[in-house]
Structures are given as structure tokens and as C-alpha cells.
Design brief:
single chain, 417 residues, 13 helices
């Protein structure tokens, strides 16, 4: 059976947002369009805007203004249900691929089931088992698995409200588990995410059930060629430039990294931080700390977020990429893109980043170990290394995803016969 002709993507945000999820979903959507499918996406926009429908890269994107604010809005409600129903009525998808449920909640899966729609879910982070998305406790530590009592205190403190009731958090997990059991496929870019959901009691996410590991694809050759071209235009000022590509959040470890760079005391090395600097669930301590270091030390340089189209331009100005995450990254897209361009990578030995251990161009450092990071930074040398070529392409990933879609439809047809 051929793949479905009309695919709906449901997610949290879309370009120009530059997070790994958005970069991946846009690339996949465009590739599916090039393969002859029709793709429409429903994602949140600024709550002050009005609903907009735009075409970008052949994809029809419905930008829905956030209908509620505050922590209670994360799991959706009647207003978000109505927005989803209207989008489904308008698009009439053959299959819906869910990439994130923030703002929609597991109730969105109930709506899709009520309509008899085939559903594929990709777990990009831990949002279904942690409302903060990364199992990152307000006290700045990683939680192994959700505990409703601990979660209630954490959420209350992080949102400046009285301690949350425990029972709704228990119900949230139960609802997520029940809803996921009824979808057709669950995918994740690494085993890390599937294992985290299993530890939380969502056994349906295991590879023995609906779970499947689906590494993300990268247009490695195109990115490497453009980066190499732009690199030739870069003046040599003798500096070693390490780059962070992503948000300055407590869980991302950028502040401890910046402190380690300062402590390393190298006059020839600078840390270029490219990405949004926003409070994480009301916590601006990491942003404030990094900005303070940048004011005090010339070796810490801050840049705004950049669009995916400028990725090669940014890579060309760097001599290495650092991923100092403290939470269990699901994949580490930026690290893999850097290796495709021949840049060395320094990353935390945690989560999906541990899968980079076999790459000689990657140095893994224990997350949060100040001394280890200082020592690793002191050893950094300038110079490109052999690019990593064993990286799945966007085309290969798209073909695998399309086959998942086709398999889901085959199973549905067989059950209906």
C-alpha cells in the first residue's frame, strides 16, 4: 500500500523557531512534500496574534494563537480542542503525525482517536511525563522518573503558585499512558527517550510494544559544502571559537560551560553563544548568569537566535561546537550537524549524546563536572578534522517515515477487512 497522500503535523511551534524539534519537523515536512505528499501543520503562535494560514516550503501551516496562558494551559482545554477540531475539518488528513503536545495535551490524542484517524507520535522530549519537558527539577537537578509528590512541589515553586495538587498529576500520567496505547506507532530519535517513558510507567513506548528508534536525518552533504564555501571567506584572527547552538536554559548547561571557559584562562579562545535567551518556566537565572559573564569577560560572546537558513554561516565561523547539556538530550541534532561539517564536538556524556562516543571527533565530558570541562577546554586545538559521513540523510529518514505511514495504513486496512 502507498503512503497516505495528506499528512497532518501537530506540534508546539514552527519556523522561525529554531529549536531542534522545529528544524527537524520542517525538514521532514518539506521532504514529504517533495515526495509528492500534501502536508499541513498546526502549531502555536504568539498569543497576541490572530490565526494565520501561511505556505512555507510547500507546507500549509496554521499558526494558532495560544488560547490560554499560565501552567494550566500546557495540557490544553476546550478552546484548544476546538482549534484542533476546526483544523482537522479543514485539512481532512489521512494520517496525523504528532510531534509535540504542549498546549494540546493528551486530550488531542483522544480527539484523533474519536475520528478514527491513524496516528504516529514522535517523542522528542519528556513533556508527556514532565510538564517542564525535560525532567529538570526547579532545584536544578535531573529527575530519573516522575514522582507526583515531587512534581507537585516543583511545579508550584517554578510557577510561583501554591503546591500543585498531586492527583491531577497522577491523572496526567495515566491519561498519557492510556492515550499512547491507542496510537498506531510511537517513534523517538534515541533509546534514551523510550527508556525514560518506560521508567515513568508508559510501557507502550518500549521497543517491545509500539516504540521504534528513528534517528533524525540531516542534509549533511549540502550543509558541509556550504559551510566549507563560507569558511574560505573567514578572516583568520588567531582565535579558537567554540560555539553553543541553542537555548540558554538551566538544563542546557550553558552557564556552567561559560564559567569553565572563563576558568580555563585561555586568551586565544572565545565562546560564541548563538540562541534565544529566555526564562525557563519563569527561571531566568541561567540567562542572567551568562549575560553577566559576557559583560565581565571578553571570552564570552552572545548572539541572537538564527534561522535554519543561516546554519552554515554560523558553523563556518566556528572551530568547534559544544553541547554541555545537563538533561538527557534525546538526540543532539546540532552536534551531528557540526560533525558533518568537519567540526570537532565537545559534549556531555548523557542521554542521546552518549551515542556519539564511537566518533573520534567527539570528546565526551561528564555533565556538570567543572574540573573536567576546564581541562577539556584547555586541551582544545584549532583545526578541522575528518567529517563524520555515517549520518542518516533527510531523504533516508523521510523514506523510513513514509514506510511507517504506509505500514500503519496496511495494518488499519487489514483490521477493517
Amino acid at each position: 500500500m502507498l503512503p497516505p497522500r495528506r499528512i497532518g503535523f501537530l506540534g508546539q511551534s514552527w519556523s522561525p523557531a529554531t529549536g531542534g524539534i522545529e528544524v527537524h519537523t520542517e525538514a521532514l515536512a518539506r521532504a514529504l512534500v517533495e515526495a509528492g505528499m500534501e502536508v499541513g501543520a498546526l502549531a502555536w503562535a504568539d498569543e497576541k496574534s490572530s490565526t494565520r494560514i501561511v505556505r512555507h516550503g510547500g507546507v500549509t501551516i496554521t499558526r494558532q494563537p495560544r488560547l490560554m496562558s499560565g501552567p494550566d494551559a500546557l495540557d490544553g482545554g476546550l478552546a484548544s480542542d476546538a482549534a484542533l477540531e476546526l483544523w482537522l475539518d479543514t485539512m481532512q488528513p489521512d494520517l496525523v503525525h504528532v510531534h509535540h503536545l504542549s498546549g494540546w495535551g493528551a486530550r488531542a490524542l483522544d480527539i484523533l482517536e474519536s475520528r478514527g484517524l491513524p496516528v504516529v507520535v514522535t517523542l522528542h522530549d519528556d513533556w508527556l511525563i514532565c510538564p517542564r519537558g525535560q525532567r529538570w527539577h526547579v532545584s536544578n537537578k535531573l529527575c530519573s522518573a516522575p514522582d507526583p509528590e515531587t512534581c507537585a512541589k516543583c511545579l508550584g515553586e517554578s510557577h510561583g503558585t501554591p503546591e500543585w495538587a498531586i492527583q491531577p498529576l497522577v491523572q496526567r500520567l495515566l491519561h498519557a499512558n492510556q492515550a499512547l496505547q491507542r496510537v498506531d506507532r510511537i517513534m523517538a530519535p534515541s533509546s534514551t527517550l523510550l527508556e525514560a517513558h518506560q521508567r515513568a510507567g508508559l510501557e507502550c513506548a518500549g521497543v517491545h510494544a509500539l516504540g521504534r528508534i528513528m534517528p533524525l536525518g540531516i542534509d549533511a552533504q549540502q550543509l558541509a559544502a556550504e559551510t566549507d564555501r563560507l569558511r574560505g571567506q573567514r578572516p583568520d584572527d588567531g582565535l579558537v571559537r567554540l560555539g553553543v547552538l541553542g537555548s540558554v536554559q538551566p538544563s542546557k548547561g550553558v552557564l556552567p560551560l561559560a564559567k569553565a571557559v572563563v576558568a580555563a584562562g585561555r586568551d586565544d579562545l572565545v565562546l560564541e553563544i548563538h540562541g534565544p535567551r529566555q526564562a525557563y518556566h519563569g527561571d531566568s537565572s541561567a540567562v542572567d548568569g551568562v549575560e553577566a559573564l559576557a559583560r565581565e569577560h571578553d571570552c564570552i560572546r552572545l548572539h541572537p537566535r538564527f534561522s535554519p537558513e543561516r546554519r552554515a554561516e554560523v558553523m563556518a565561523m566556528l572551530d568547534g561546537v559544544v553541547v554541555p547539556s545537563l538533561w538527557e538530550e534525546g538526540f543532539g541534532l546540532g552536534a551531528r550537524e557540526a560533525r558533518a561539517c568537519g567540526l570537532p564536538v565537545m559534549a556531555s556524556r548523557i542521554g542521546g549524546l552518549e551515542q556519539l562516543d564511537s566518533d573520534p571527533g567527539v570528546t565526551l565530558v561528564e555533565p556538570g563536572d567543572h574540573g573536567a570541562w576546564v581541562a577539556a577546554i584547555q586541551k582544545v586545538q584549532k583545526g578541522l578534522i575528518q567529517p563524520q559521513t555515517a549520518i542518516k540523510s533527510t531523504l533516508e529518514m523521510t523514506e523510513e517515515v513514509a514506510e511507517v505511514y504506509a505500514a500503519v495504513l496496511r495494518e488499519r486496512t487489514k483490521r477493517a477487512a
